[in-house]
Amino acid sequence: MDIRTIFDACHFSSEKMQKVNLFATTELFLDVYCLEPGQKQKVHTHDEASKFYVVLEGHGHFHIADETKDVGPGQTVLARAGESHGVENASEERLILLVGMAPPPNHA
Amino acid sequence: MDIRTIFDACHFSSEKMQKVNLFATTELFLDVYCLEPGQKQKVHTHDEASKFYVVLEGHGHFHIADETKDVGPGQTVLARAGESHGVENASEERLILLVGMAPPPNHA
Fold first, then answer.
1. Among partner residues B1, B64, B80, which is closest to A64 by beta-carbon distance?
2. What ipTM is given for this predicted complex?
3. By the 8 A CB rule, do A43 and A65 touch?
């Protein structure tokens, strides 16, 4: 059975945000993103894929389709196909995100 | 911005497991499933969609492709397209799951 323990998979680097894949199929991927304070995922767009972020720990400063908001633990954020999106850890604590996208980039 | 607070969305019923949709796009859905002790999602199969479960609270007894395992908080389980899958709350505590599927059923 494909089971992953999310926090065990998570690892951080002082160089940049770490993306760790949990699951990948032809229909979706599920990653964990690990951001030290000050690290970010640059704003970008997928024309044909939806992405969601779940904040597991810490606070993220999200940019979705020209809106920006701080999002905290237990909250989830959606970026629809064609909406620009990115996230920055503007806090002083680590940020851990569960991130899913469908379809995955090589199929989008 | 599409933001949902997962535990605020969750609600339980003594009648059956509750599924609450958080996000739905043409590419994916993200739900929260709320199971009282003894409640379950029957084993079923989607031939062309992948589904993942994240245990947010409690313990789930998962059936995936003829394997069964107990999965706890912070763990995630994958059911690939064509794999039978279901979950039962065989514990004495409530079970809360974040569940995503791609593509959603009406597109699969």
1. B1
2. 0.95
3. no
| Domain enclosing residue A45, as ranges | 37-51+58-97
Flag whether B22 is in a domain.
no
Number of folded domains that form chain A = 1
Report yes or no on whether pTM surpasses 0.90. Answer: yes
> What percent of chain B lies above the pLDDT cut of 70?
98
Contact at CB, B3 and A75, closer than 8 angstroms: yes
Assign A53 to helix, strand or coil.
Answer: strand
Tokens of A50: 């939806």
CATH of the domain at B57: 2.60.120.10
Q: Does B25 sit within 8 Å of A78, measured CB to CB?
A: yes
**CB of A86 closer than 8 Å to CB of A63:** yes
- The per-residue pLDDT for range A54-76, each reduced to its tens digit, is 999 999 999 999 899 999 999 99
In a domain, B58, yes or no: yes
User: Does any domain span residue A102?
Assistant: no
